[in-house]
Amino acid sequence: MKFEISENSRYPAHEQIKEQIKLAISLGHIKAGYSLPSIRDLEKQLGVGRAIVYRAYRELEQSGIVTLQPRSGAVVSRKIVLPTSNHKAEHCEVLLRKVLREIKKIGVLESSFATLLYQRTMAREQTGPPVAFVESIKTEALQCAAQVSRDWGTNVVGISLDELKRIKRSDVSFRWLLTPFYEYEWVARVAKGLRIEAAPVVLTFSEEFIAELTSVLREGRALILLADQDFERHGEQLIAELRESVGPDLSRQLLAKAVTSVRSIESVVSSGKYKRVYAGNRIWDSLDNRIKELPSVGHPGVEIDRESLQQAKVKLGLLI
User: Fold this and answer.
1) How high is the pLDDT of residue 72?
2) How do the residues of the chain divide into helix, strand and coil, expressed in percent and rounded to 5?
3) CATH topology of domain 13-76
4) Which residues, including other chains, have CB under 8 Å from residue 304's CB and lie 6 or more apart?
5) What is the reported pLDDT for 273?
6) Are 242 and 205 in contact (CB under 8 A)?
7) Considering Cα of 177, then 180, then 181, then 186, what sign does the dihedral take?
8) Tell me, which fold does domain 207-300 have in CATH?
């Protein structure tokens, strides 16, 4: 694979490297398991600093596209399963060549046209987001939508399951839906009725939350309060994941309960038994702001597993 860097591009060098790799994968020019040039080799080839190449590879790794290995260098992740024939990517390539011929005929600078196209498409996506993230809890949907917006570079809206139920086919502005695996079966049925596509993703606790929880447990006990339905559906799984993340020494300090098993959140907080009480997002949405602002009250932060997000993009047939 040959890399090129344009000094006149409006995009920084590391972004140009990333986009060339992602496009090559989407077009099938490089596949899962493919070894990319070493950081040193690409540094010499492009005449850029080593830190620039490393940043490009590191950000691709964070997106689940590349795996950095001590001896093998940067390798395209084997977990990326691309379709054998990416018709959308092929059609984009044909369309690109046609557009370039047309703008050459009318005497417009290609980069100027690209800037205009980018500005217009971003403006359209602000008024009508093409992707929505659906979750039963609106707070969680908004958090995940913000993450997808950053990773995909497009406007993603967060909506609750109740909001999705009320949407009519004639009012649909988005074309794709993302949702956690445990909501996927129901969301997929609704999406089919709306004639849009849906893909599942894996939710996990954010690194920031795990770091905060670890710090809290070093000083005392912490309690996770979940809505009854969440506690019944996946309470044991969630607490097991958290205990594994904080380690065996601190896991004994962590407890989880259904919210109806306590008299009130305020009474639990004032009891002094816990260094911090975390209200699940479904509870957090309905909490009084006075309680939310208490220093010993918080709520778990979640994020989308980046590899599952990449797989969702492939499933929906979008370019990487």
Assistant:
1) 65
2) 55, 15, 30
3) Arc Repressor Mutant, subunit A (1.10.10)
4) 144, 147, 148, 178, 201, 202, 203, 204
5) 94
6) yes
7) negative
8) Cobalt-precorrin-4 Transmethylase; domain 1 (3.40.1010)
